[in-house]
Write a structure and sequence with these properties.
D-Maltodextrin-Binding Protein, domain 2; four-stranded mixed beta sheet; five-stranded mixed beta sheet; 4 domains; alpha/beta
Length: about 675
């Protein structure tokens, strides 16, 4: 009986465990174990389903009285039976309780409305995009998924994302602004997505451009196509056809000259635009061939230059033809503002527009219609649009160590791989000026409505940028001089050859070396020390670039965003964390100790929503703020309210120059160097 009671106790313990697991499966392993033990217990209890009935009195065989009874022994037997029956009652009571508990537990196990287990958050990064809307889109299908935003709103997104990739400090859902499989190997850091069915949603030509020998580590998002903007209305008005080759363009140029119509306007505000004119015209010839693509690799590795490559010299001659024809005429361009050049074009007396601001939709001051044509080859056989993908997305390989989290991340990628999912990240105006890489994407409302089929067919070439950074400005400037009759096309070719050594080495000046990862907060302290020292300020208030839900796409562009990684630090790296970016100057204000404390506690209202970003108060360890004393404060992050209440002084000191001087004093850089002692 003691053994039976022990087993009952064990069953109760098991039941409690079963119930505590809150399983929704009545055939779970725990329930199977319980059932087996319970059945054995019942079997061992055997006849306990009924009480023993006391026997009649035991006869006492006395010869003198055959009807006499042994009452003493009888009473002893009765007592013994009642004792056993009491034990049975106790056991049965236990069993009854167990039965009730089982019933209750099974009812609970059968419920489907239990609170689901909380999912581990998926980290996601999408700088300058509408993450709030995307999260809403994800939750329409997968409300259980939690997305944690990894923020970045600094001045050098491309470098920062590449630094994260090199350090393998990636969020679950990774993003890059530049990706070419033949240049960047990410196979050890990213998951191959080619085996997942959501890749079937993409246009084949877009997947081909990111295919790494069949593997798909990163998928394209919204993209723009550069070409030559043309005035549809002006063409139709004069009965002219859109040229499909350079030969036809020459014929049109003669007609335009006779009619007093300007052939082309060129945007020349930036040397980078002029560098692209060189590349884009060459793309319509030699560069788009297999030999041309190989030449690009050889140039970047120092194996070939322009002057010793016949195909590139032919491209230079072709560029000269464009200049002679009037397609590179900048006499009517504004050298300081591409927007004004664009506005002048919209007025309607020029057929073509070159430059980055070419996505003309509905203009308020004109009824003219505009379209986009490719860069033209001489015979029309190699006409090409220039493709520029805004963003690429993939999954960190670390997710393979967490199957449940990987499953959720794949669901997010599934949403991202749809028109609705990607569209949620971008405002309507951006969507109209771009194209989506999906088979079911409609181009009717975009600038590319007439040419979307041609673009999706693969008549594109990638935008040339990565690897060429050390010649873009020099060659672009020389190209601008060529367009303004201040240099020859040979000078442009020579500039490319002259810059090759710096392109091949591609080693920008090292300011200092970070020996460890330096956190965002420590970076803010370093920036604060730098700005205060450069401006002779007592302290600094440096805002932080966190992500705040409801603050839109830009978030805090005036804060320290991100961190520094253990590596040689160049000006590119400094600009990833610098609130003033490449060229802005440091501002100062004068505040009392009380005002400083209040502003520190309030934070920086960057976008006027009242949802503020925190400040880092950076001051020497021995400085104690006095409420009534006035201090000069170097500050990054000045709200409209603060600017209206306090005089803001522009120091005239470029933040990057100050940072290079300050950080250059450190042979190495660590977290400890952030402290202002």
């Amino acid at each position: 009986m003691i053994l039976i009671m022990k087993k009952c106790f064990i069953v109760m313990v098991l039941l409690i465990g079963v119930l505590s697991c809150r399983t929704n499966r009545v055939d779970s392993y725990e329930m199977k174990v319980f059932n087996e033990i319970f059945d054995n217990l019942v079997e061992e209890m055997g006849a306990l389903d009924r009480f023993e009935i006391p026997p009649p009195p035991i006869p006492f065989f006395d010869n003198n009285n055959p009807m006499a009874y042994d009452t003493v022994r009888y009473e002893q037997k009765i007592t013994e039976i009642e004792r056993e029956n009491m034990k049975i009652k106790k056991v049965q009571s236990v069993c009854l309780i167990l039965a009730c508990v089982v019933a209750t537990g099974l009812i609970g196990c059968g419920k489907t409305d239990e609170t689901p287990k909380k999912h581990e958050a998926i980290t996601f990064m999408a700088p300058y995009l509408d993450i709030d809307s995307f999260i809403e889109e994800v939750h329409k299908t997968y409300p259980e998924i939690e997305l944690e935003v990894v923020p970045y709103s600094g001045a050098n997104t491309t470098t920062y994302l590449q630094n994260m990739l090199e350090a393998d400090d990636l969020p679950d859902i990774c993003t890059q602004t530049f990706y070419k499989p033949d240049v960047v190997d990410v196979s050890d850091k990213m998951i191959d997505l080619s085996r997942y069915d959501f890749t079937d949603n993409y246009v084949e030509s877009r997947l081909k451009e990111v295919s790494d020998e069949g593997a798909l580590y990163m998928l394209p998002s919204l993209y723009n196509c550069y070409g030559i903007t043309y005035n549809k209305t002006l063409l139709e008005k004069n009965g002219w056809k859109l040229p499909t080759s350079f030969t036809e363009l020459e014929e049109l140029a003669d007609k335009a000259k006779e009619a007093g119509v300007t052939l082309c306007m060129a945007q020349i505000q930036y040397p980078g635009s002029a560098f692209q004119y060189v590349c884009n015209i060459a793309d319509a010839g030699f560069l788009s061939t297999m030999s041309g693509k190989q030449w690009q690799k050889d140039y970047l590795s120092g194996k070939a230059n322009v002057s010793n490559t016949p195909g590139m010299m032919e491209s230079m001659e072709y560029i000269q033809k464009w200049k002679d024809l009037g397609m590179l005429d900048c006499s009517n361009s504004d050298p300081a503002d591409d927007g004004k050049t664009r506005e002048a074009f919209i007025k309607g007396n020029s057929l073509f527009l070159l430059g980055p601001q070419n996505g003309i939709m509905d203009a308020e001051d004109t009824t003219d219609k505009f379209g986009l044509m490719p860069y033209l080859s001489e015979d029309g056989s190699r006409n090409v649009f220039i493709l520029n993908v805004n963003r690429f997305y993939g999954l960190s390989k670390k997710l393979e160590n967490n199957p449940e989290k990987l499953e959720d991340a794949l669901k997010v990628m599934k949403v991202l791989s749809t028109v609705e999912g990607t569209s949620a990240l971008y405002p309507d105006s951006t969507l109209k000026a771009g194209l989506l890489p999906f088979k079911d994407a409609k181009a009717d409302e975009t600038f590319y409505a007439d040419i979307s089929d041609m673009i999706n067919a693969g008549n594109t070439t990638p935008f040339i940028y990565s690897g060429w950074e050390n010649t873009i400005v020099n060659t672009g400037t020389k190209m601008l001089e060529f367009m303004q009759d201040q240099a020859s096309i040979k000078d442009v070719a020579d500039q490319l050859d002259e810059d090759q050594n710096s392109v091949v080495n591609n080693q920008p000046e090292v300011i200092t070396t970070a020996t460890e990862e330096i956190s965002q907060e420590s970076c803010a302290k370093l920036v604060g020390r730098c700005f205060a020292e450069a401006t002779g300020s007592d302290i600094a208030l440096i805002s932080l670039g966190t992500w705040v839900s409801g603050n839109g796409t830009n978030q805090n562009n005036d804060g320290v965003s991100g961190k520094l990684y253990a590596k040689n630090i160049t000006d590119y790296d400094v600009c990833t964390i610098l609130p003033t970016g490449w060229s802005r100057t440091i501002n100062t204000i004068r505040l009392t100790g009380k005002q400083i404390q209040a502003l520190y506690e309030e934070g920086y209202d960057a976008v006027g929503t009242g949802k503020n970003y925190p400040y880092m108060l950076v001051n020497p360890e021995n400085l104690k703020l006095e409420e009534g004393k006035t201090y000069q404060v170097a500050i990054s992050g000045i709200s409209e309210k603060l600017a209206s209440e306090t005089e803001v002084t522009d120091s005239g000191i470029v933040g990057l120059d100050a940072a290079k001087d300050f950080l250059g004093k450190f042979k190495t850089l660590s977290e400890a160097d952030a402290e202002w002692k």
